[in-house]
């Protein structure tokens, strides 16, 4: 297996594990960002630049929203300490996923080696099969149309989620201000003058 791919895969696994283990929320978000960017570079090196671009866009939006959310909450995660059973289960799952990933990477051809299938088939069938003279257009919009639709859906969902979180944060701040204003006690009315004092004032005005 190529050492660059192995190093990036290890970076993704370590970043994910660090995000799960850290108690400081901001540090966990940074670890998630590192893992996501490493995954995007992996996609790029493996010949999937469109997926790499989608990963970068989604990662930037998600990390930005998470940093904003962390800034509005506490820096430390509150909760019960993890039990030994949960730690062992997480470690076992990490080992299984890591072993499967290493096996998958080991089965890949060397980086830069010619891979005649399916690229040559796409080039040969673009015009007769899809009716498109441009091979890239045929691949993106015909042969891999559902894949393109899925990537566009992921980007749209990420942008919509970021807008909802941003609007919710602004509305929450406005609601807090309104609640604070409503909680302020109203000014007490001035006490009414005694009836006897009002009677004397009327008598003086009548004599005048």
Describe the structure.
The chain contains eight helices and no strands. The mean pLDDT is 75. Helix 2 runs antiparallel to helix 3 (49-71). Helices cover 78% and strands 0% of the residues. The N and C termini lie far apart (111 Å). It has a domain at 1-77 and 89-113. It has helices at 3-21, 25-45, 49-71, 84-106, 116-130, 135-143, 145-183, 195-207. 8% of the residues are buried. The protein is mostly helical and 208 residues long.
Topology, element by element:
Layout: H1 3-21, H2 25-45, H3 49-71, H4 84-106, H5 116-130, H6 135-143, H7 145-183, H8 195-207
Helix pairs in contact: 1-2, 1-4, 2-3, 3-7, 5-6, 6-7
What is the β-strand count?
0
Judging from the principal axes of the Cα atoms, what is the shape? elongated
Q: Tell me the number of helical segments per DSSP (H or I, 4 or more residues long).
A: 8
* First-to-last CA distance: 111 Å
Helix content: over 70%
Mean pLDDT comes to 75
Estimated radius of gyration: 32 Å
In the predicted model, the low-confidence regions spanning at least 5 consecutive residues are none
Task: Return the structural class.
Answer: mainly alpha
Q: What amount of the residues lies in strands?
A: under 5%
Write down the secondary-structure element order: HHHHHHHH
* Biggest sheet features: none
């Amino acid at each position: 297996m190529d050492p660059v791919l192995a190093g990036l895969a290890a970076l993704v696994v370590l970043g994910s594990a660090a995000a799960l283990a850290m108690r400081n929320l901001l540090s966990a978000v940074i670890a998630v960002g590192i893992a996501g960017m490493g995954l995007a570079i992996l996609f790029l090196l493996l010949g999937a630049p469109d997926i790499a671009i989608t990963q970068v866009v989604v990662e930037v939006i998600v990390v930005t929203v998470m940093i904003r959310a962390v800034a509005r909450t506490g820096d430390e995660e509150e909760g019960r300490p993890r039990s030994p059973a949960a730690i062992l289960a997480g470690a076992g799952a990490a080992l299984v996923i890591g072993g499967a990933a290493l096996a998958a990477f080991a089965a890949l051809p060397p980086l830069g080696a010619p891979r005649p299938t399916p690229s040559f088939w796409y080039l040969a069938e673009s015009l007769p099969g899809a009716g498109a003279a441009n091979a890239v257009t045929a691949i993106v919009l015909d042969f891999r149309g559902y894949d393109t639709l899925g990537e566009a859906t992921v980007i749209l969902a990420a942008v919509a989620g970021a807008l909802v979180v941003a609007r919710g944060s602004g509305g929450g701040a406005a609601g807090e201000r309104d609640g604070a204003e409503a909680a302020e006690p109203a000014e007490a009315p001035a006490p009414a003058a005694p009836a006897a004092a009002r009677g004397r004032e009327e008598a003086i005005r009548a004599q005048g």
